[in-house]
User: Fold these one by one.
Assistant:
Number 1:
Amino acid sequence: MKVKSRISSVVLFFVLVQTMIGVGLLSLPHQAHHAAGSDGWISILISGFFIQLIVLLIWLLCRKFPNLTLFDFSKVILGRTSGTVLNFLYIIYLLTMICYIFIIYADTLKRWILPETPGWVLFLIGFVLLIYGTICTVKNVISLFSSLFIFILFLFVITLFVYGDPSIDVRYLFPIGSSGGWNIIKSTSDSMISFIGFETLLIYFAFIKQSKNISALKGAFLAVLFVTIFLTYIVILSTVMLSPEEIKITSEPVLYILSAIEIRILSRLDLLFLSIWGLIVFTTIISYSFSASMGISKLIRVKHKFAVILSGAFVFIISMIFYYMEITLLEKWLKHLSLIFGIIIPILLLLITIIFKREAASTDEKK
Amino acid sequence: MRKNELFLIFFILPLLTGCWDERLLKDSRTVYLSGFDLDENGDYQTTSIIRDLNISQASRGEISISNELVTGKGDSIKEASMAIDRSVAGKYDPAKGRTLILGNEVAKGDIYNVLDSLYRDPRVDINAKIAVTDNSANEIITHLSENEVEKGEYLYELIHSSEIHSEIQDITLRSIRTYLFDEGKDFMLPYLSKDVEDDEVKISGAALFHDHSFTGQFLSPDESTLLLFFMETKSKKAILTEQLDNKDDVSVSYNVKSVSRKLKLEKEEKVHADIMLQLDVEIVDYPPDHLDKQEMINFLEKRLSKILTEKADALFKKLAANQSDVLGLGRELIAFHPSIWKEIKGENYYEHILVNPKVKVNVRSSGIIL
């Protein structure tokens, strides 16, 4: 099946940025510090560079199958049965990601601003928003994302107020490289998690105009660059604000820092930040569920609307179960899952296409 | 489609979360000022002033403010506040406290024990100011509740204006935690005392901390201003007065416009820290005048540099005696000389550091007359 609507590569920038910046933003400095000490920002930079390479690989894979999404060309590469199995796994993976985001989202909100609100209400709101945001065409998704992009800039502006604080100490960044080169490189596998979202490119590349041309990559490259810089900035900001031992026990450093900032008429900037962050998280959720429902509709041949409701219901139920039974399984497996589905499988697919010379043309012959 | 949207809106409306998480002002008893003490048995005692807004129906909604002094005891700070909660009508809500006072005994122990419960609550205003008293916090608060109407605000403003004049370090509940968890940095807090003659609460200096506890020593406002110059963290205003000549009783007041510091750390027997401080000052009060002559300015610069260097020497001796590394030399070593730090690190690393301060004063301006 070929996709109908076309988007330009510049718009891909917004889609990717909105998908990549998400739920991990708040705890990122804490995790980066956990992995690489005060050199966390270096490890973010390195993984950002690494992700650029992965994006290049994904493009090399997708350009062989213009106008086809992952769910279509997997069958071409692997054959009908194993292709279907892979599609199924990808759908499950995307839905699990949404569950994870839901849980972290509800947990953070409950701890920071809504302690009395029952958890299921937050999940229900998430469910409704997910369906409302996803029942539409790719064009609608894109216009939503590009208009919400302003809020990411807004997040950035809020953090600028931190510089009035007298306790900023640049010395916390030094000595650069104290955790040792090898440790920093090892920790990049941890910081790669903060970039997940790039794997949706496997689907979105199908919508790009002239995806064979290298200029199709422009948007994706810029998006990864933007996210890298933004995340590095957030990590550096938290590192200079909090002493090393303190970051270890602060799970959401960004919020913690902002909660102490007071500008003339406003205090508690963390609440402002959280509400905007909520929007950004929902764009991630919408992006994932859009991809997942597209997969579902192709897998069991139903309409997009029905697939959306199906995936929404699945996410709602599973995340509620995990949340209330306090299963932390997801967190543990997430890193491995995202590495497998974001990096390893695309590389394997690329290798197979190159070795066995699979191309989109071959599907048409079979049909 | 229209129908669908309407349906959605009706579906979402009851979910608006404010319904669960509302906290009505009329139900909670808001705290404006809290103090913590340690009694003989090792129990914590919390003293708070609760402010009530009484909106009278009779006189057209006129608002009157009344204050209530409450105390509670417990093994931990949280238990003490639970004890208060039981004794007051409504819910005791310590979140809005603008100022916290640590009694002398509490400050000499590990102050993180007191602050921990505050950091765990997302609603606490971590922008609050903290101060140490020379006696018990209870006494200060009792005094304030009798004499000052705007309790919490009064102390807050008192501390804030001292910060603006560079007399004490700008420190809040949030930044204090950064210092507590930093192995290479100490801090100072405003030191409150009750003046017997004036019957007023005053800031008599800055209490020196080492690690997590108060050393028992405090710096005078002049000394702490000088120390803030060495830390390069002075605020907008910093006016100092020095006596130039003991015999003639001539003194000069000057405002420090800008500060620049050069720090050199070298490891010999001990770690030598040579600090060169350049102050650009503006003369604000000097009756003998003659500032049109270059010699006079040179004389002033020389004299002030000498006086300040002597003062700085005394200051750093005092810091060394208390092992209070307010300057953050330990952090400097960690950041730029990790090999030296590796040799001396430990709780009492400041013993190994010898500070050699030098101050150079440059007169840049003298107001609108010469």
Number 2:
Amino acid sequence: MGEKTLDHSQGRPWVRLLNDARFRGWVSQAVVLALIIAGASYGISNVAQNLHKAGITTGFGFLSSPAGFDISQTLIPYTSKSSYADALLVGVLNTLLVSALSIVFSSILGLFLGIIRLSPNWLVSHLAGAYTEMIRNVPLLLQILFWYLAILAPLPGPRKSLDLGGIIYLCNRGLQIPSPEFLPGFGITFAVFLLATAISIALIVWNRRRQRNTGKHIPAYLISLCIIIVLPMISYYTTGSPVHWDIPKLKGFNFSGGITVLPELIALTLALSLYSATFIGEYIRSGIMAVNKGQTEAAYALGYRPGLAYRLIIIPQAMRVAIPPLISQYLTLIKNSSLAVVIGYPDLIHVFAGTALNQSGQSVEIISITMIIYLSLSLVISLFMNWYNKKFAMRGY
Amino acid sequence: MKDLTKLLFITVLAVTLFAGSAFAGTLDTVKKRGYVKTGVSGKVVGFSTTDAKGHWNGLDVDFARAVAAAIFGDSDKVRFTPVAFKEAFTALQSGEIDMLTRNTTWTFQRDTKLGLEFVGVLFYDGQGFMVKKDLGVNSALELDGASVCTQSGTTTELNLSDYFTAHGMKYKPVVYESSDEATVIYDSGRCDVYTTDASGLASRRTTLKDPKAHIILPEVISKEPLGPAVRQGDQQWSDIVRWTLFALINAEELGIDSHNVDQMLKSKNPAVQRFLGVSGNFGQYLGLSKDWAYQIVKKVGNYGELYDRNVGPNSALGLERGVNALWTKGGLIYAPPIR
């Protein structure tokens, strides 16, 4: 048998190549790739041709023409005279805002849920369990609508809004909070704040080194906190309070001045956070359960209090198991934020793939752009979390 | 995201595969299929809604029935597809429906840029505002600072912006995907104002918790010519839909209605004879039978009958003819002659 195989490989060069499994592999892959590219380019040119034939204008030129519509929440200056590209940016930023808020809240709540679900206290652990099972088994869309209508229904109109200390108001138009306006002298306070931060960092580094060398330490975090608060405060008052607070005032039907936190944003953040937290809680719980019990016992034997043992020993090891599913959860959360459409929160889908698409009629271009943005967002988060996973979790630090 | 992917997929697929075949010979396709596929909104009282028995009615619906009557001599040979505003144009472009009668405003961009062709005006409308009575507002010019509920992607949204900018007023837009939601949320008190076409306001007001607590402000801030649309590029099909509209209008002008149409066959008036196919054969130029216009009036009625039945003073909407009266009675409804 062995000799025969040898015979084949010693034949003519092309026969030899044909019998080479690796070569065959490369060729077949190249052929498949070429077919895919050919198919895709045929498809694209066909679409372009047919769109043209049907009298539908194509191209990305529309991005620079004025959008003509207004948006209820814009993090950058935007008016109806701004371009479609600006509307796109407004949508992206609004999606990022609600996603970031929800990721932070759901992570905190999820970590808490995961830990207390393992609590030896029957009531506490079962409450966490009941919450998890209840929330994660109800469709998110329903929860978003529930929170939206639940928030809107009991809140009074702006003229009868709840007055929280004369500077914050709550009504069915949202939460009205004062907005700061920085006057020229504020630069000094800001500089002092930077300086205080630098001092604090230096203090913490010095303290850590000293503790490693001598065993002695001072409560550096507490001291730093004081420095960061007190120093800028002193400079703020000595320079004559150079911040003007724009306090919301009832004018006509609505409040003017200040910042309005839309009820749509509140409802969406609440629904996304509460929903995602149940999943995150379960990942954390599985992570904690994956840490050998001996680790906890060893920590207690060394005299760690439970809080410290969790913070320094168990959670870091648990994260190793929890991070990969956590990545998908964050990605799911970002994509789920597109459900904003049902309550009129101006996210990317609502503003760009909804309004802008209808106003411009450029469906192929707009949907392609939207997909590329979601894809890039997901890839960036994924890359960051994988980097974090490699850098920290695997070492069990 | 799922919706989006679906939308893109359908657009691309439909445009790729069926573009060649679907964009010509719509009449043949329709005849072979046996019915006309029509996109309607399905949600606007007076224009297109279903009753408790699932029977469709409304002005848009009756217009589609008139097209079916012209082609088949049978006004029931039509199927209605409720299309959300967002999907309406795509559905038409991709051949999912043969025509769109969805109280859609005829605008320059839609006519020139989207591969659509508007055949005429079925209903002259204009954008208005509805507010709660207890706000004490009597004019749209007192709306500075108001929160306004509306539907996204519509001409309404753009006019709103134009109007407030032009009058140096500010407003807070609260924009929803569907007018259903916008209405419900307006009713909950989230907005001070609800805006859409005046006919739509009248229609929507009937669905509020307490219709009498709301008033429609006198200002009409835009022109909203609502009309049926077809795909661009099939001249025969757009002619059929266009002349169905003109036939409805001409019938009213000639005094022909669904009750007297059979007697009118004996009329000595040459215009009536031409119209009903008694003399000449105008139907052949559309690829239809000689009595196409007779069938329309017989099965559906004339424009005035359609109007009175669906949106007129005695209907749920209670709208006066106003600008939608015939040109002979001081309105804008006017059709080229059949000759």
